[in-house]
């Protein structure tokens, strides 16, 4: 068996078999039995000894989860706090933002992030991008140099398009300009390399890390964390620690921490290579799907493929029929995902490393039958 086949088999063996074909990891991956069991065991433990006593005994496992996220983002374990998701992480960060409320972000910025900037009172300007929505770091240096914003926000990999942003090059430009870089790694963590010199990174559990829903993380480097606004009640807690203070689903955080550990054990680089391979395979097999156009370049190193209808197909309806008639799970992404860039909904296909070539071929056949 080849190394990628072994990787895929181990991932499959760690889970229940899917009921149908799951090509929807950008929305929500399938959890491992170990992650599910860790959360369930903690819930049982809470009922035996009390929720707050159980939380104390969970601390080392949660620390390991934070340390795993730190390893994947180039941060330190103490820089990482749990949230309930990516959107929550951004809200928390904006809520304690210590500088001017000005941000430069992609024209293809995630819609709910745009709304968070708006409600946080941020003035926004667009980073310069190419025709695929990929930022041009040199053009960004030129555009921002004279009058830099107080934050550059980069969504490293979008929800509506599997195109990788040059995180490290943007981080270098931000360092040069002295502007903090905040990275939305909701789709990027455990999918593409997220070790970069960013000042803050946040992500979700349920997507490529395959943890439970309702968990996320926020990592902030000390230089920025030390500036964040602390609440009056902070006492000995840092502003960052205060963000994690409050009611939380500890069981889910434990499941997440197990998922992070399993990802690290599988080998992040091997997973990235396999995901890139599956993206290439998907785009190749769907290249001539009648009535659809593959948006990404075939070799884009991600497992997200988006199909734009060329002949009036409705992605919402096609997604529903793929599930109902073929047992194939995908996402219909509406323009609210990137309201400043998208003009029509797309169909998103996002296999994890367990997908078989047969799965993608089944999708190609089903699409032909439906459109
Ligand atoms: C899913 C997603 C989010 C929001 O994540 P939640 O955990 O649902 O809050 C933010 N940004 C991008 C690019 C996403 O794909």
Write up this protein.
- With about 375 residues, this protein is of the alpha/beta class.
- It folds into two domains: about 5-25 and about 265-370, Aspartate Aminotransferase, domain 1; about 35-265, Type I PLP-dependent aspartate aminotransferase-like (Major domain) (Aspartate Aminotransferase, domain 2, 3-Layer(aba) Sandwich), CATH 3.40.640.
- The chain has 13 helices and 13 strands.
- The strands form three sheets. Strands 2-8-7-6-5-3-4 form a seven-stranded mixed sheet, with helices on both faces. Strands 9-10-13-12 form a four-stranded antiparallel sheet.
- Helix 7 (about 165-175) links the parallel strand 5 (about 150-155) and strand 6 (about 180-185).
- Helix 12 packs across helix 13 (about 355-370).
- It is globular.
- The structure holds pyridoxal-5'-phosphate (PLP).
The quaternary structure here is: single chain
Q: Which secondary-structure class do the elements indicate?
A: alpha/beta
H and E string = HEHHEHEHEHEHEEEHHHHEEHEEEH
Radius of gyration: 21 Å
Estimate what percentage of residues fall within beta strands: 5-15%
Described by strand count, sense and barrel closure, the largest sheet is:
7 strands, mixed
Q: How many angstroms does the end-to-end distance come to?
A: 37 Å
Shape: globular
- The level 1 CATH classification of the largest domain is Alpha Beta
* Spatial ordering of strands, largest sheet: 2-8-7-6-5-3-4
How many independent structural domains? 2
Look up the CATH topology of the largest domain: Aspartate Aminotransferase, domain 2
Which segments are poorly predicted (pLDDT under 50) over 5 or more consecutive residues?
Answer: none
What is the CATH superfamily classification of the largest domain? Type I PLP-dependent aspartate aminotransferase-like (Major domain)
What fraction, in percent, of the residue positions are helical?
A: 40-55%
Q: Quick one: how many beta strands?
A: 13
H/I helix tally? 13
Q: What is the level-2 CATH architecture name of the largest domain?
A: 3-Layer(aba) Sandwich
């Amino acid at each position: 068996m080849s190394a990628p086949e072994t990787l895929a088999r181990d991932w499959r063996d760690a889970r229940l078999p899917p009921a149908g074909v799951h090509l929807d990891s950008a929305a929500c991956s399938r959890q491992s039995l170990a992650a599910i069991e860790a959360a369930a065991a903690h819930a049982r433990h809470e009922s035996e000894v009390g929720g707050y006593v159980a939380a104390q005994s969970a601390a080392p496992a949660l620390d390991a989860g934070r340390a795993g996220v730190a390893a994947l983002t180039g941060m330190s374990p103490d820089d990482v706090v749990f949230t309930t998701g990516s959107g929550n992480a951004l809200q928390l960060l904006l809520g304690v933002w210590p500088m001017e409320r000005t941000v430069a972000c992609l024209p293809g910025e995630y819609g709910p992030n745009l709304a968070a900037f708006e409600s946080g009172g941020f003035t926004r300007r667009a980073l310069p991008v190419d025709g695929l929505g990929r930022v041009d770091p040199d053009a960004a240096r030129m555009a921002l140099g004279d009058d830099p914003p107080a934050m550059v926000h980069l969504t490293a990999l979008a929800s509506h398009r599997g195109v990788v942003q040059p995180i490290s090059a943007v981080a270098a430009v931000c360092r040069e300009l002295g502007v903090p870089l905040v990275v939305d790694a909701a789709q990027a963590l455990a999918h593409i390399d997220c070790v970069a010199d960013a000042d803050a990174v946040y992500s979700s559990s349920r997507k490529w890390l395959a943890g439970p829903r309702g968990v996320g993380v926020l990592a902030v480097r000390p230089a920025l964390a030390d500036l964040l606004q602390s609440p009056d009640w902070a006492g000995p807690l840092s502003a960052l620690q205060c963000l994690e203070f409050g009611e939380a689903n500890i069981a889910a955080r434990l499941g997440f921490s197990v998922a992070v550990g399993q990802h690290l054990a599988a080998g992040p680089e091997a997973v990235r290579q396999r995901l890139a391979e599956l993206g290439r395979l998907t785009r190749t097999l769907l290249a001539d799907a009648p009535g659809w156009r593959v948006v990404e370049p075939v070799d884009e190193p991600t497992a997200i493929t988006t199909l734009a209808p060329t002949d009036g197909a409705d992605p919402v309806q096609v997604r529903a029929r793929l599930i109902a008639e073929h047992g194939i799970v995908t996402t219909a992404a509406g323009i609210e995902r990137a309201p400043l860039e998208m003009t029509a909904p797309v169909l998103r296909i996002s296999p994890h490393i367990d997908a078989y070539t047969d799965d993608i071929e089944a999708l190609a056949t089903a699409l032909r039958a439906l459109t």
